[in-house]
Structures are given as C-alpha cells and as structure tokens.
Amino acid sequence: MSKVIAIDGPAGAGKSTISRLLARKLAYRYLDTGAMYRAITYLALEEGIDIHDTEEIVKLSKKIEMQITPPDENHISHIIINGRDVTDSLRTKEVDLNVSTVAKNKAIRELMTEMQRNIASSGNIIMDGRDIGTRVLPDADYKFFITASLEERARRRWKELREKGLEVSLAEIEKEIAERDREDSTRELAPLVKAEDAILIDTSNLSIQEVLDKLISYIKDEGNV
Ligand code: CDP
After folding, report:
1. Rounded distance between C-alpha atoms, residue 81 and residue 191, angstroms
2. Residue-range domain boundaries for the chain
3. What is d(CA 96, CA 100) in angstroms, rounded to the nearest whole number?
4. According to the model, what pLDDT value does residue 167 have?
5. Residue 129 in contact with ligand 1 by CB distance below 6 A
6. CA of 223 to the centre of ligand 1 (A)
7. Residue 169 near residue 3 (C-beta atoms within 8 A)
8. Cα–Cα distance between 23 and 179 in angstroms, integer?
9. pLDDT tens column, 206-219
10. How many Å apart are CA 207 and CA 3, to the nearest integer?
C-alpha cells in the first residue's frame, strides 16, 4: 500500500540520516525538502542577490527552473536547478547562514510546497523538513518530530564538519544552530512546530540504529514493514 512519511525537526537532529536509512529499509523514495530551500539560497548567493531583498528573491524564484530527479541507487532525489545538479554543493556555511531568510519568503514557500505535494502524490515517500507534517502533507500516514538537545545537535554537526576536514569551533556551531532554530520557529509562515499528531522522538541519548528501530516499530505496529 502506498504510504507517505513526514519527518520534521530542528537543525542537526539527524532527520536526513534517519530518512536515508528508512528509505533504504522500506525501499521508499526520500526527498530532503531543506535541500530545495538550500538550492535557491545557493543560486541567490551565486548571483549576488541581496537575500533580504524580497522583490529580488521573488524575481529569482520566477526564473528558477527546479527539477527533482527520480531517486538514485540510494533512493535519494537530486536537485537540478537551471539545468545544474547542485545537490552536493548545498551544505556550506554560507548557505547555512542564509537559508532561513530565504525560507521565510512567501513566494518561494508556495512554489516549494506545491512541488513537494506533487512529488508526494505518487506515494511511498519519506519527506523531511520543518513543515511537512503541519503544512505540506498534513494527511501523511506517519508523522515524526525528531529532536535532540541543542548541545547534542551542535556536537553532531561539529563532528560532521570536522570529518569533512573543516576547522570550526563547537561554540560557533551551537550559536549558528540556535539562531537558525529561532528564525525557523518564530517565522510567520509555516514555522517549525511539532504537528499535534506527530510522534515526538528525542534522540539526545539514542544511537542512529536505536532511532531507526523506534521509527520502524511504529510503522511495523500497523503491519507496514
Ligand atoms: O539539515 P538541517 O536540519 O541543518 O537543515 P535543512 O533540513 O537542510 O534545512 C535548511 C533550512 O531550510 C531550514 O533551517 C529552514 O529554514 C528551511 N526549511 C524550511 O523552511 N522548510 C522545510 N520544509 C525544510 C527546510
């Protein structure tokens, strides 16, 4: 049976890691909606557009041609923007610092939400983001809200960056994540908030495998695994 799984939560909670593993386990598609907002931010920065200039961002949104590829061998959909696959260029510090401002833009959100709903309409998909369970797919079959303490989320992101060879201070990462969470949670449109019917999972003291097992146990309860 065709199922839709929504996974929301703050920065660094482990949504994308868990979503990838779950997609592999269930053989579902996985769409990282944050990557869509990141792709627009990346293009805006590349074109030298003032991120705070709403009119310019709307103009940009009208000229963007975004395509989401069918899932690759790891079930991941790539983001093609104006003919270019930017998927692997989106997790930079510059994008991190500017994406929440772009994500506040009404025209951009409307465009992204419509695309996301279209992609989800054929089912068997895991979508992660901030507003999937609340706005994009309020009728999703399963909704999870994955979180962890700020300290733990910062530590995980710091470790990830260090493994990539980047020298960053833990305190700086913690400050940036806290700021992005604040912006995402307090914005007017589709703020980051747990859907009332979402299952809350605090991963502060859980391993990746334990989180995955927890999600699967909820899905299994209904005989879907
Ligand atoms: O991986 P991480 O949690 O750090 O971020 P992400 O999922 O790539 O999302 C980047 C940013 O995009 C978020 O901080 C939000 O500002 C925005 N976003 C959003 O507004 N709505 C979504 N459904 C997904 C992301």
Report:
1. 25
2. 4-220
3. 8
4. 87
5. yes
6. 31
7. no
8. 30
9. 999 999 999 999 99
10. 26
Short-list 213, 171, 158, 192, CA closest to 8: 192
Residue 225 confidence class, pLDDT cut points 50, 70, 90: low
Instruction: Return the ligand 1 atom nearest residue 104 CA.
Output: 20
Measuring CA to CA, which residue among 10, 3, 24 is closest to residue 146?
Answer: 10
180 lines ligand 1 (CB under 6 A): yes
Residue 184 alpha carbon to ligand 1 centre in Å: 8
Number of neighbouring beta carbons within 10 Å of residue 94: 11
Q: 42 in ligand 1 pocket by Cβ < 6 Å?
A: no
Report the chain's mean pLDDT, rounded to a whole number: 92
Query: Would you tell me which CATH number, out of the four given (3.40.50.300, 2.40.50.140, 3.40.190.10, 3.40.30.10), belongs to the domain 4-220?
Result: 3.40.50.300
Backbone angles phi, psi at 137, to 5 degrees: -130, 65
Span from the CA of 9 to the centroid of ligand 1 (angstroms): 9
- Of 13, 3, 6, 4, residue with least CA distance to 181: 13
Radius of gyration of the chain (CA): 17
- Binned at pLDDT 50, 70 and 90, residue 221 comes out as low
